[in-house]
Amino acid sequence: MHIEKLEYLVEVAKTGSITQAAHNLNVTISALSQSITSLEKEWGVHILKRSRSGAIPTAEGKVIIKKAYELLDKYEELKEVAMGYSNTIKGQLRLATIPGPMFFLEKVVMDFKHQYPDVKLEIVEQGSQDIINDILNDKSDLGFIILFRDRLIEHTGLSFERLLKVKMVAATSMNSSLAFNKSITPEELRQQTVVLYNDDYVKWFMDDFQKKHGSVDVIYTTNNRELISRACIHYSAVTVGLNYSFMTEPLFGSTESVILDFDMPEPSPVYLGIIQRKDTHPHNISKHFLERLKHDISKIK
């Protein structure tokens, strides 16, 4: 029996579909179906009940699939031990991130690649929901997102590890009437021209803000940071974002900008963190990468 057959079986169990599992694993539907059929013949037991609506484990199949999960975890541990003896790390690491953490990742990625040249690194910048979907569908290994009280991900089969506590702040230029303030009240923000970065947490924050304090004059929302910077510098607009993003990737020079805390009760804690699938054993590459990332973030804390 080949280990790939167990991987195929586990993927079908995760997705509930032979078609989707074949797509995720980049194999043909026929090859995957025949692989599972050969397991059933070899073991003399029906593992999956197949229908037009999908494939679900039989009672016996549930027990077998649970053991297959455990065996694959042990197999990954075995590979890690072997790689440790050879003192080499090879493979692929797929990262998905919201825009802000790119500053953290840039140095970590370069240092990691220098230390482990045989690891292929892929980074994609996406919205949070796309990142969650890609992690669940095994298209990415690690995802960097913001977790807040309305985003519950544990029930989806993902684990979340906190990296950095963050908070929302406002930013504007030294040309603004707010330039010498240390904070901004909800009423003051409502009197400003506002431009926003197109981020799902910023959207959630502003929607929640407007429900509590009234409407805000948002001129536009964009992924173009230059447009936001120009609006602040030339038109004294105000933008809203997470504090670490303004520290790590300033919209304009430190002598041109001012960062304002919100003068209102602090909401529930918000964290930048890492998501992974709960049902897979984190491979050695991910572990080494996270160790280096946490070391760099600890300096910011």
Key words describing this protein structure:
301 residues, alpha/beta, Arc Repressor Mutant, subunit A, D-Maltodextrin-Binding Protein, domain 2, 3 domains, 6-stranded mixed beta sheet, 5-stranded mixed beta sheet, 47% helix, elongated, LysR_HTH_N, LysR_subst-bd, transcription
Shape: elongated
What is the tally of beta strands? 13
With helices defined by DSSP (H or I, 4 residues minimum), what is the helix count? 11
Overall tally of domains = 3
Q: Which class best fits the helix and strand makeup?
A: alpha/beta
Q: What is the subunit organization of this protein?
A: single chain
User: Strand fraction band?
Assistant: 15-25%
The average pLDDT is 85
Major sheet strand order: 8-12-7-11-9-10
**CATH-derived architecture of the largest domain:** 3-Layer(aba) Sandwich
Main beta sheet: strand number and arrangement? Answer: 6 strands, mixed
Q: CATH H level of the largest domain: which superfamily?
A: Periplasmic binding protein-like II
Portion of residues within helices: 40-55%
